[in-house]
Amino acid sequence: MRRTRNRRKPSERPRLKFPAIDWRRLGAVLGALAALGTAVAALAAALDQPVAAVSVEGSFQHVSPGDVERVVKAEVHGAGLLSVNLAAMRRAIHTLPWVDAVSVQRAWPRGLNVLVIEQTAAARWGEQDLVNARGELFAGDGRHIPPELAQLSGPADQQPIVAQRYLAAAGRLTQAGLRMTALRLDARGAWEFDLANGVTVRLGRRQVDERFERFMNAALKLVTERGEEISYVDMRYTNGFAIGWRNSAPHAAGREGGRNA
Questions:
Q1: CATH entry 3.10.20.310 includes domain 53-118
Q2: Contact 89, 96 (CB under 8 A)
Q3: pTM of the predicted structure, to 2 decimals
Q4: pLDDT tens figures, 33-72
Q5: Residues 6+ apart with CB under 8 A from 180
Q6: DSSP characters for 145-182?
Q7: Hey, what CATH topology would domain 121-254 get?
Q8: Neighbours of 185 (CB within 10 A)
């Protein structure tokens, strides 16, 4: 007998059925969207009025509000309130000397509000540059540099380190009743600073933080009480320091372990 094999029919894939498109409704929706877009564009055009008023605010000591307003008007250059580039305007204002932070906001219907925050200078660097309270260098205006600011100096690539050391040390000295007027880092890496009473403190190249702490703990009282008699304090000793008296030979104070520059 002949055996017949059951042949399986290949499985039929289900056919996807798409709903019928209601072309009339689709056309109505597209028409409504186009009308909405036209209305939005018309509204934007109506709101994009030429800038007519500029308000400049801030606690001004070194920045001129008139200079800020001139920069703003140059950046507007006929643009409307919506189309004016606020980011470019902020960048342009930042180029003015003494400007630290800027905020520019639209004021409807035809105005701009500008808020300027000035830099807080902590020290001088070079002839015209300044260091702010964060230790950052910024360009100052030679006409408005406070003369009482301390003078910092050192290699150009070491400016952040010099600034940070000044900010850390100046606060400690101020609390102790002394004011630092200068901080120097020479090309060999040696540190020294001047005080308002005319005393120079030499820290050298090694263990600078430890030597400063030793000055604060061991030499500060003597410098405070007899500063007018002292020319310099040399902290470059292992276990002590040396005093350079005005109009006399240097005198070692504390235990001298040999100068360690």
A1: yes
A2: no
A3: 0.73
A4: 665 556 555 445 556 688 889 999 999 998 999 999 999 9
A5: 150, 166, 169, 170, 173, 193, 194, 195, 196
A6: --TTSEEEE--GGGHHHHHHHHHHHHHHHHHTT--EEE
A7: Rossmann fold (3.40.50)
A8: 22
